[in-house]
């Protein structure tokens, strides 16, 4: 009987030591193979659910038999306990930077310098390896006898930070090289980055948790790599491309850069396929143009291309100038910034009434598109940047990110520039705009009943993929229906007839029919999705799911008292109050009834045994003032998850949550090497624990 099929159901029956050892080895090999197919070969070989099943089986086996738990096991990728700080690592060979070129002529000059340096014949062409300049962070991965032993950031080029626990969570990076004959020491250099798609997902999660979004994939990659708690890194998908080498012992150095990258591929390291070997300046410029036109379709961001003299011997002859090699050059794309004029500053109203100032701009071409407006985030941000109407401003558009106003040009400010005034009434419905003391964001007080903007936002959220997933019911369609008063609430969606839909602009009979079937299909859903779709403030996807498992049915959620809500994992006073407020509104209760009457249903579950108390045994100390949480709120969140809050820092303290003006407690925590969290890290900790208990069982204590 093959191991593959014999014990798929669990590990309980594996009694024979040799048998479970084999099974564990097989599981580890399978998981590694799937990681490699997915992250390195870009060719998924197994559905996620299957992967998770194998993973859990191996995790269970290793828990029963801790001696199986090797440092290169795929289960080691879940992250480890938070570090108090990163250790410093001195690079055995410094990590250099690259010279830059922008214009064609800079490239022609580079090629001439190379030829001069090599004393080559006038008409002989140099062979170059051309590749992408990834917009991420440089990293050094040290493999000893084929096993990943250390990962360090570039830092200042001489000394970086030891981020090994974080790098272990990156599934694109092999924990062991694919060779029976590994070099004694190999320093692989390359770039850690986040793909655009994973960046968008991360920001969606941040948004939902009302946490700060990352400005671009590079910042998100940097933020994730520099997490003291690698369990947080483990929840973010980072990638890696190898492009260089440091120390090599116990193997011959490949004779060219292209051969080095081929070797890396064989070793199971991810190497980008967008690379070629070209000749002369003309070859370099062709490569640059080719990549330039492909750039928007690449799944990650690049800020140019890199040319390296291909032959190692030639590289050595050319050597280095100060901190950059003479044999390589970065050919950068023009910066994606442009100047334009602010024609006005308006506000946009979101689904929860949040008021966002938006700059209306004279159309300007930046980053491949014409931009006519850019976000100014919130009122404080407008003040901080001092952007006024009439100003000439620098706008930046990075990749797929919403364009933003970077700064204004002081010399060009006209005498009649006008400062932004936050309106006191909602431009859409006229209700008062209010700003609660503990919030940075101003909101329209109209609610969806009065405010069409909130109504639109709420309905768009209801129909969205992660909520009711009503395919074909796009944002513009919803806008049209709200504007024409065809629908007011989500329940009205289910009363729409085919004829009403077909009357809408740009709606063919066929598409109307598709929307009808999508609406019908959406009726069969899960309780978690349904709760999430209601768009209750502070109730993101994860919280909605937690509520669904805890209460098992919608009535339980609607009738719960504040105390009962606080028993749910991850729910603190803020969320509890928001739920109470939502369900105390008769209109919302009516909406739920109407939706149920329309036929929306889900499998009812029995209430879960008890909420997960993933922080039990952990002690917290709160110090300083946090940006958006009161001390009571933070304490309640900790206690709801089973943790304890105490007043003073000791060796027994697990975490110190520190805000602005934290004093002696913070100093003490630093002295005792206790993990220090800011509000964002604290929130992520709470978020990360929930539904992810397995990852935390590894805690040695
Ligand atoms: S080679 C000795 N190749 O650019 C040459 N760097 O300005 C060292 N980068 O810190 C770097 N893509 O973060 C090299 N294909 C590539 C690259 C690349 C991105 C970054 C890297 C480095 C910076 C140098």
Can you put this structure into words, describing what you see?
By secondary structure, the protein is of the alpha+beta class. It has 6 domains: 3-78, Orthogonal Bundle (Helix Hairpins); 117-332, 2-Layer Sandwich (D-amino Acid Aminotransferase, Chain A, domain 1), CATH 3.30.470.30; 337-427, Nucleic acid-binding proteins (OB fold (Dihydrolipoamide Acetyltransferase, E2P)), CATH 2.40.50; 447-522, Orthogonal Bundle (DNA polymerase, domain 1), CATH 1.10.150.20; 527-608, 5' to 3' exonuclease, C-terminal subdomain (DNA polymerase, domain 1); 611-693, Rossmann fold. Helices cover 37% and strands 19% of the residues. It contains 27 helices and 24 strands. Strand 15 and strand 16 (369-375) form a beta hairpin. Helix 4 runs antiparallel to helix 10 and helix 14 (452-463) runs antiparallel to helix 15. The chain is globular. The two termini are 39 Å apart. Residues 1-11, 606-611 and 691-701 have low confidence and may be disordered. Bound molecules: 2-(butylsulfanyl)adenosine.
